[in-house]
Amino acid sequence: MQILRTAEQLRDFVAANPENIGFVPTMGALHDGHASLIKKCVAQNKTAIVSTFVNPTQFLAGEDFESYPKNEQNDAKICEELGVHAMFAPEARELYFDTEPLISAPENLASVLEGKTRPGHFDGVLRVLNKLFNLTNAKRVYMGKKDAQQLLIVRNFVKTCFLNLEIVPCEIVRARDGLALSSRNAYLDEGQKLEALKLSHSLKKASNLIAAGELSAQTIKGEMLQTLEPLNVDYVAIVDRNLNEISLIEPDNTIILVAAYVGKTRLIDNLWV
């Protein structure tokens, strides 16, 4: 496996390995959730590239850009063991310029949920992904369903910009206790990890209600909020797959999302119905 530091090195690698490239964009601190994306990428493509770039443009002032978990040695070990052909780990100066066009995510998709709490976040996501998509020339890009809003916005970007690539959604990976895997889980102590289970428990409650025939979004949200107590809840939302709020569950077209603070750590989770 090669570790690439510069855009030029990545371009040269792609030129030497032009066929059937798969790509997994990450911010490093790789865990089993990332590993599931990487395994699928390696299995489905001749060449697999993983990026581990912590992208500054998607962090707001006061967020955890400086303290975001980093472990490049372990990232490289995981990638090599899983059969990745190249890991791209650049500095920000390799990707960003003092003068460059900016990208704005569609307001109807990006101003709600995560975008309401983190305005401009998805602009930064699209800005870096546009660069990475062009540099890797990937035909398939693997993204997790845990970041549901991001997945839908990136799909829209690919479709509306006529990009010749496929976004491959991958299922949420959970610890044995149900906690959705996240690099930010590293911030949690043992007691907070137990508190964090309230997110997945609230979604399990929603799933059980739906299985019992309950379709009222209001009723389901009320039960979820009770389950989440006493966490500081940012939102509980029930939306269709265009991120429009809905009053009744629509089978195969609904996402139930939750965001809450456990201590100072903000966590998200969701359920695709």
TrEMBL record:
Q: Does the keyword Aminoacyl-tRNA synthetase apply?
A: no
Q: In which pathway does it act?
A: Cofactor biosynthesis; (R)-pantothenate biosynthesis; (R)-pantothenate from (R)-pantoate and beta-alanine: step 1/1
CDD domains registered for this protein in UniProt: PanC
Instruction: Using the UniProt record, name the top-level EC class of this enzyme in a single word.
Output: ligase
Q: Which reaction does it catalyse?
A: (R)-pantoate + beta-alanine + ATP = (R)-pantothenate + AMP + diphosphate + H(+)
What other facts are recorded?
The reaction proceeds by a bi uni uni bi ping pong mechanism.
Q: What is this protein called in UniProt?
A: Pantothenate synthetase
Species in which this protein is naturally found: Campylobacter showae CSUNSWCD
Recorded name of the encoding gene: panC
